[in-house]
Design goal:
Layout: E1 5-12, H1 18-28, H2 46-51, E2 58-64, E3 67-73, H3 81-88, E4 93-99, H4 106-117, E5 121-127, H5 136-147, E6 155-156, H6 165-175, E7 188-197, E8 201-210, E9 213-214, E10 218-221, E11 226-229, E12 232-236, E13 240-243, E14 245-246, E15 251-255, E16 269-272, H7 278-282, E17 297-303, H8 309-322, E18 327-333, E19 337-344, H9 347-361, E20 365-367, E21 374-378, E22 383-386, E23 398-413, H10 417-426, E24 430-436, E25 444-452, H11 453-456, H12 460-467, E26 473-484, E27 486-493, E28 496-497, E29 503-506, H13 510-524, E30 532-538, E31 541-548, H14 564-584, H15 591-598
Parallel strand pairs: 1-3, 1-4, 4-5, 5-6
Antiparallel strand pairs: 2-3, 7-8, 7-16, 8-15, 9-14, 10-11, 10-16, 12-13, 12-15, 17-19, 17-20, 18-19, 21-22, 21-23, 23-25, 23-26, 24-25, 27-28, 27-29, 27-30, 30-31
Helix pairs in contact: 8-9, 13-15
């Protein structure tokens, strides 16, 4: 039965045409009717369609020449790398898509290594060959250099015109092996994604490794030790299509009716459940799940209105089900009340998370300045991990502070190598070496660096694009922790410390960062009736300051003539009022201002 099943996913750099190629495959195999077809059909989330990026992995089942072909469309951005690694665990092969006009990019290589780790069959495809600036020969050389495959194994295609789609499907059938299974094993299915539905409860996306899942089965989730019952199973076509059962090697969905989100974890194993075999079942070989993902960026998330705390909690819990790489724990701040400390894989991840809270749950939130996790070793030799400036202990109690370092790969045309080196050295990066991906006049280099994560999380990507005219791409992964010297930088507005804007910075960069934050606050804060003092301070010592001038009402416009001294009297009265307001005035900082500082 499994001889006629093929499972594969599409991996590529951002914007190399994964979702468009998936559209052509759906069209070619007749999975979706012509009249229902729309661009980027599998990107169903409103945000995905708006931004033109894939955020969530999406499975779909197609039929072609007596074969059942399961495709998983994956994101390309480094912040959603975890979605890619989960897709790879559920399939036997991957199409490596490379844009003919851009060539091999940093994420192409990052995602390729993830696929090679899982021992997947790789089918190299050069996409967008119909583009006027397509350079097929150069791209082919780069792929040969990268994969060491034969030139005839590379397929030329166009996701826009549909050229080469038949060859891709033939290659999937010929080159990708059918799923393997062991008849001695009990039923086992891997949960690689899950969503919450208000009517049906938790819906898990599963890949059946052994046995079969059918409606009415009593099942057991090994990781969370939760018994449940299968209410419905079926396939993604791409909408839900219910079936009697899902067989070995197939990908589909399973509705468990579980109402508790934490009972159905991504990476868990489902097995069939019998009461008398409960203990034995717990020891059934659980499938290797996923490596626990480590968030790299932490930010405090607080509701704008205190009574929205419960709504925020429910919303984050539901997003967590759909986004396994999200980390959160409750946090209390004196200034902002109750909220959560959340961990993300990058700033885009944080941005998407904030957008989804606002759109899907109608929540207004305040985000504190993103920071990385520092390790603090105190005088007694104990180690503590801190995620926010508020957790920073008294400097006199600290022996050593360690910060995370990343391995950074940047691919850029050779003309911009000097600019990239300048940018990375300015951000405390250590140069390792340079590799050249191709030869000729339009040669491209791959630069390897080690760099502190704190350098990457604010505006590094934007700056990299600026210094390379948009041509460079980057990929990064965690190496280890190294010693550093950081201090807490406090921001004071109208004589009041704004806790949400406190941040941890390197001591030698404190003045520069403080000045930048003060400037960006001056630009983004709404003007008040009184002069606003904006200051940046370290341990009580002000290192940067500025003033935002007051709005001035024309108090003498209602006067119809009269003595000069009367005018002066009114102006003096206004001046005194402003002085009094300067001493006692309070200011409400809008969320847009917080965001402007975050993106400084």
């Amino acid at each position: 039965m499994t001889q006629h099943i093929r499972n594969f996913c599409i991996i590529a750099h951002i914007d190399h045409g994964k979702s468009t190629l998936a559209d052509r495959l759906l069209e070619f195999t007749g999975t979706v009717q012509k009249r229902d077809m729309q661009a980027q059909l599998l990107d169903s989330m409103e945000l995905e369609r708006e931004r033109g990026i894939t955020i969530k992995l999406t499975p779909v089942r197609m039929s072609y020449k007596d074969y059942v072909i399961n495709l998983i469309d994956t994101p390309g951005h480094v912040d959603f790398n975890y979605e890619v690694s989960r897709s790879l665990a559920a399939v036997e092969g991957a199409i490596l898509l490379v844009d003919a006009s851009q060539g091999v990019q940093a994420q192409t290589i990052g995602n390729l290594y993830l696929a090679i780790e899982q021992n997947l069959t790789i089918i190299p495809v050069i996409n967008k060959i119909d583009m006027p600036n397509a350079n097929v020969e150069k791209t082919r050389d780069e792929i040969l250099h990268l994969l060491g495959c034969k030139p005839e194994e590379i397929i030329l295609a166009s996701g826009k015109t549909g050229q080469g789609v038949d060859k891709i499907l033939e290659a999937v059938i010929e080159r990708i092996p059918p799923p393997t299974y062991d008849t001695n094993n009990p039923t086992r299915a891997l949960i690689f994604d899950s969503v919450y539905n208000d009517y049906k409860g938790v819906i898990a996306s599963v890949r059946v490794m052994d046995g079969e899942l059918k409606k009415g089965d009593k099942i057991f989730l090994i990781g969370t030790r939760t018994p449940a019952e299968v209410l419905e199973v079926g396939y993604y076509k791409p909408k839900f299509q219910s079936a009697e059962k899902i067989n070995t090697g197939e990908i589909g969905y399973c509705i468990t009716g579980l109402k508790e989100l934490r009972d159905c974890r991504v990476g868990d194993t489902i097995t069939t459940y019998k009461k008398d075999e409960e203990e034995k079942n717990i020891h059934t070989l659980a499938l290797p799940g996923y490596k626990e993902v480590k968030p790299v960026v932490y930010a405090g998330i607080f509701p704008k209105e205190g009574d929205d705390y419960q709504t925020l909690r429910d919303a984050i819990e539901r997003l967590k089900l759909n986004d396994a790489s999200l980390f959160y724990e409750p946090e209390h701040s004196l200034a902002l009340g109750f909220g959560f400390r959340c961990g993300f894989l990058g700033l885009l991840h944080l941005d998407i998370f904030q957008e989804r809270l606002s759109r899907e749950y109608n929540l207004e939130i305040i985000i504190t300045v993103p920071s990385v996790a520092y390790r603090i070793i105190n005088n007694t030799g104990q180690e503590k991990i801190i995620h926010s400036p508020q957790e920073m202990p008294d400097p006199t109690h600290i022996t050593e502070i360690l910060e995370p370092w990343m391995k950074l790969d940047v691919i850029t045309p050779k003309d911009f190598v000097g600019n990239v080196m300048g940018l990375v050295s300015e951000r405390k990066g250590k140069y390792i070496n340079t590799e050249y991906l191709s030869t000729g006049s339009d040669q491209r280099a791959m630069l390897h660096y080690e760099i502190p994560l704190a350098s990457l999380i604010t505006d590094f990507y934007d700056k990299l694009k600026t210094v390379t005219s948009g041509y460079a791409s980057m990929n990064y992964e965690f190496i280890d922790y190294q010693t550093t010297d950081v201090v807490r930088l406090d921001i004071i507005v109208a004589e009041e410390q704004v806790e949400a804007l406190s941040t941890l910075v390197w001591r030698d960069y404190a003045y520069k960062v403080g000045k930048k934050i003060v400037e960006s606050l001056k630009e983004s804060l709404p003007r008040q009736q009184f002069v606003l003092k904006i200051q940046a301070a370290i341990g009580g010592k002000v290192i940067a300051a500025d003033r935002l001038s007051a709005l001035r009402k024309d108090v003498i416009e209602t006067m119809s003539g009269g003595d000069y001294t009367r005018k002066q009297k009114l102006l003096q009265k206004q001046k005194k009022g402003k002085k009094r307001m300067l001493a006692h005035g309070k200011i409400d900082i809008p969320p847009e201002t917080y965001l402007a500082v975050l993106k400084r």
